[in-house]
Amino acid sequence: MAGNIKKKFSGGLGQLTIPVIAIALLVIFNLIRDPSFFSVGLSHNNDGNIVLAGNLISIINGASELAVLAMGMTLVTAACGGQDISVGAAAAIAGSVFVKVLKTSPDISGGKVLLAFICACIVAMLFGTFNGTLVAVFKIQPMIATLILYTCGRSIAYWINGGATPTISSPIISAIGSFIPGIPIPTPVLIVVAMAIVFKLVFKFTSLELLTQSVGINGSAARLNGINSTFIKLLSFIILGVCVAVSGSIGVSRLGLINHETLLLDIEMDTILAVAIGGNNLGGGKFKISGSIIGAYVIQMLTITLYAMKVSSTDVKAYKAIVIILLVVIGSPVVKEKFGKFVSKLLDNRSKASLKGAQ
Amino acid sequence: MNKKTGLKREPLTDAQLLMSITIVIFILMYLAAMAFLQGGFLHPQQIFDMLNDNASLIIVSCGLTIVMIGAGIDISVGAVTSLVVMSCVLYLNGGGNIFGSILLALGIGLAFGVVHGFLISYLEIQPFIVTLAGMFFARGMTTILSVNPQKVEHEGFAALRDVKIEINALGYTAKNGNFVPARMELGVVVALLCVVVIFILLKYVRLGRNIYAIGGNQQSALMLGINVKRTRFISYVISGLLSGISGYVFMMHTGAGNATNAAGMEMNAIASSIIGGTLLTGGVGNVLGTFFGTMTLTTIKKIVVSSGLNDPWWQSITTGGMLCFFILLQSVVLNKRSKSKK
Predict the structure, then answer these.
(1) Domain membership flag for residue B275
(2) In this predicted model, what pLDDT tens digit does every residue of A169-213 receive, in sequence order?
């Protein structure tokens, strides 16, 4: 019993400890506050489709862009030991390209949406390559390298739009942004699931996960073992580029317009936060994409909980900050160690010798 | 000059090299602007305008430089500045006096610095996350205090705000025949004072040398008997304090509080430090370089505006391009140097 609890505190759940605890705390808090918070019902939306509705659905739906970006960001973090702070700006560019291609002619067909998405993907991957080249080839720290695109990305999007905020309306776009007729689950959620499956398959059938981790833990050792660390870092940025295009397109489809200033505003900070809450070391190395995805939902659940408590959208940040600090303090190695010692002392006075092993 | 500090010789010279590159480029750029764009660039007032507009940015960049030399990052500076402005404005309008408002500004800055420093150095949480939370908290608190813009109506403060230092020697005669002396705000004096104090702190005081040491190599700093945790803690406290000062200077410049004040200032401050030759990896940097970094950044924006590229996107696209140029230049220069040393 004692050993079991000790193990839990010293990483029985591994790096998923913090996100799982966080989500559990939020669920318990909400259940105490208002038991009907998690009720999910069926309702008719404006198009007359039967769809799922409720806070839980809006949490899972609202976190889609964040979750997609967090997946890519986890890879970049793991391989390069730094974060890409330009994802919001790059998503604005990708969204602008998406709209620009759709706007070339008035009728919007499925094939054209696909073409627009591919164009957005290519552009986002190009920008990813730009960031990746700076990081991998020129050995610049990721945060500084991506500061360039962070500074000018939204202006480039503005330039692509020609100084306007064009709108698009089409049943296909609204199907991507909200619901496909006949399916009660929001489409962005399905896209997240699809992306997660793709990542899982890639990790299962290629050695990308192992290579990324070894590059992140010790780049020069990885190179000496014959791993092309430059390519792995570049690849992580290109994969993030795909994620950026996906989330940019979701964001545009959700609103039916592209606004370069507000599309996925400040999402880079939330994304990095999701990665950190997911228990990934921001210094690179071992990573778990599942942790980051849970981290994204933690952030969204926190936001929706605050909204449900009638906190205004501009004030949410202050409360969010307090919760973030609490979470990271709980997850801090020093606090963990102290707390672990405390718990062990209570449970077993004799096994002092083994405490040092418990991290 | 470097012989005495043989151990830290290498990072210092790197910093000096990067700084001199920045200064040379700044001077060349300014001369080019004087030659081709003329207009305002010919008057010394242009430089004073740049200083007046950016006094608070210079101050936060100094703080950020210290933190970055210690291999950390503080992205809360802009938000803290904004919070300080808002709370001081409300305090002054609520009947407070000037002395109290200065204490309030310093107190808020110090409080943020202490909390950040404690969480980062003693609880070993990643600086990015802690200061990100600090940023969220400060921005949120600003809007909780007031969503609407607030103007200072305190008379004593208005008098303080309007104090301008006039330098007759650098003035010029305007087209209508009136003589206009060069005008400088009080905030600029504060900013320049901060630069000098921090320059001395980093160069001649043990604390400053310790910050270089922990940024260069934490492990060897520990072996040398430096109290790494305390040094790191103090570096964040200084940065917080400077954000407080910056907030006050910002308020002296604008005279009003607004929830969107100093938006994006943290990234501008990081960019200034980088252009000035500070490396995010730590151990390399110079606060004079940071000062010139801020000036370079501002000059680019001024040049874009005066050369007639009026579309709203050009300013930040050029800034991004310039940043790219500096970052690449630094990377290439440093790589070359480290190769030639081997």
Answers:
(1) yes
(2) 888 888 888 888 878 888 999 999 999 999 999 999 999 999 999
Q: Say yes or no for a CB contact (<8 Å) between B320 and A152.
A: yes
pLDDT tens-digit series, residues B69-116: 998 989 899 999 999 999 999 999 888 888 999 999 999 999 999 999
Long-range contacts, stretch A314-319, CB < 8 angstroms, 24+ apart: A314/B140, A314/B143, A314/B147, A314/B259, A315/B140, A315/B143, A315/B144, A316/B140, A317/B136, A317/B137, A317/B139, A317/B140, A317/B143, A318/B136, A318/B137, A318/B139, A318/B140, A318/B141, A318/B143, A318/B144, A319/B140
Per the structure, the count of domains in chain B is 1
Residue B1 within a domain: no
Interface of B with A in 46-105 (CB under 8 A): 73
Minimal Cα distance from B136: which residue of A? A317
Provide mean pLDDT across the span B133-150.
Answer: 90
Write down the pLDDT at residue A355.
52
Overall pTM > 0.90: no
Position B40 in a domain:
yes
**In-domain check, residue B2:** no
Higher per-residue pLDDT: A41 or B194: B194
Q: What is the span of the domain harbouring residue B63?
A: 9-337
Q: In the beta sheet, which residues pair with residue B164?
A: B185
Q: Does the predicted interface ipTM exceed a cut of 0.90?
A: no
Residues of B in contact with A272 (CB under 8 A): 128-129, 132
Is it the case that residue A6 has pLDDT exceeding 60? no
Contact A143 B73 (CB under 8 A): yes
Q: Compute the nearest-CA separation of B177 from chain A (Å).
A: 41
* Under 8 Å between Cβ of B320 and A148: yes
Whether B120 has a pLDDT exceeding 50, the answer reads: yes
Which residues on chain A are in Cβ contact (under 8 Å) with B126?
A: 276, 282-283, 328
Asked whether residue A93 carries a pLDDT value surpassing 90, the answer given is: yes
CATH of the domain at B81: 1.10.3470
* DSSP symbol at A257: B
- CA pair distance B292, B300, nearest whole angstrom: 12
Which residue stretches of A103-164 are H helix?
110-136, 142-160
Burial B300-316 (b: 16+ CB within 10 A, else e): bbbbbebeeeeeebbbb
Closest to B49 measured CA to CA, from B318, B304, B298: B298
Task: Evaluate whether B262 touches B81 at the Cβ level (below 8 Å).
Answer: yes
